[in-house]
Amino acid sequence: MELVGKHLSHPNSIHFNEELIDLGASTLLIPGMFPKGCNSVYLSIYETKDMNQYDSFGCLKWLNEFCESYNQKLQYEIFNLGKIHPHAKLIYADYYKAALSLYQNQSKFGFIGLKTCCGKGGRYNLSVNQTCGMPSVNACDDPSKYISWDGLHLTEAAYRLMADGIINGSYTIPKFSILSSKKPNEEQRFKKRSLPRHGRI
After folding, report:
1. Which of 17, 70, 72, 201 could form a disulfide with 165, with the two C-beta atoms 3.0–4.6 Å apart?
2. pTM of the full predicted structure?
3. Average pLDDT over residues 162-184
4. What is the three-class DSSP state of 189?
5. What is the pLDDT of residues 141-151, one digit of tens each?
6. Residue among 91, 95, 50, 41 nearest 68 (CA)
7. 49: Cβ–Cβ under 8 A, 6 or more apart, which residues?
């Protein structure tokens, strides 16, 4: 769990955003965590023959549950920060659901699976000893067919779909489309949202 938890610290994230508010920032977009259980670098590191650890899309269930727990706690901290600074617009960006939609609807978006575009070897075209950028590692011919670029970062095609879902879709709390000069009701902002199955991401 050391690798997974290395950069997980929502108190630090909240403290950083509070400093920005103190410096005069009035609107902040605060992103949640990606579904790391679908990330090929973690799939490679924690690869197992126990198929019960994977969901129907090939992602590690326990790791995604860990990320969901983090995001729930982050939203709680954002809620509290909003009470301290009622003049600020705090927008939670649900990177988890926005990215998860790509993994769960691969054929719809034209993606071909959990393999990386730029990598070498293994079940996911990734080796932690031969990473993207090394002379012996080549990139795929068409990155637009892949969600993962190098095992850690997504491809431009995946990020574009995520950005559309965040800006125009339902993956922010509150939605960008309803933002106004009036601060949204806190309960409305942080109510549980379900992952859309059809239509836009």
Report:
1. 201
2. 0.79
3. 76
4. helix
5. 999 999 999 99
6. 95
7. none
